[in-house]
Design a protein that fits this description.
This protein has one domain. 54% of the residues lie in helices and 7% in strands. The protein has a two-stranded antiparallel sheet. The N and C termini lie far apart (49 Å).
Length: 143
């Protein structure tokens, strides 16, 4: 179980790091209506689920506050990852909720920068192409 939680904490890390980098220490109190890209939005929601959202009662956790000061610091990212892993280990329901959130985040397709996404769906198949260059795929019964 410990290995699973370490893996889950590692999967959460890119989302929460992006959210802390975008919002700083205010990440836990940002309003739901704020526009943000999908990764930052998921990271904020995951952090809020793990640490709570009531600024009157809850102080920003030190691991989040420190990472907010230097979001590119790998050691601070690791410290937050360890804190999250410990919290997940202490609360199986929280771990299950966060695992569901990570799955939902993975399912969401996002694009950033100068890219174009073309999505085509036939029956139950879906495809999204992101990036540079051209890619042609055909789905469906063969002719």
């Amino acid at each position: 179980m410990s290995g699973d939680l370490a893996a889950l904490a590692g999967e959460v890390s890119p989302y929460v790091t992006a959210a802390v980098g975008a919002y700083g220490a205010a990440v836990l109190t940002r309003a739901q209506q704020d526009a943000a890209d999908a990764t930052v939005g998921w990271g904020r929601r995951i952090l809020q689920r793990i640490f709570g959202v009531d600024p009157a009662e809850d102080e920003v956790p030190p691991a989040v506050a420190e990472l907010a000061e230097d979001p590119d610091d790998a050691d601070l990212q690791a410290a937050l990852r360890v804190r999250i892993r410990r919290m997940l280990a202490a609360d199986p329901r929280l771990a299950a909720d966060v695992a569901e959130m990570v799955e939902a985040a993975r399912a969401q397709v996002t694009a950033s920068g100068q890219t174009q996404i073309n999505a085509v769906a036939h029956d139950h198949a879906r495809q999204a192409v992101q990036g540079q260059g051209v890619q042609y795929n055909t789905f469906g019964p063969s002719s």
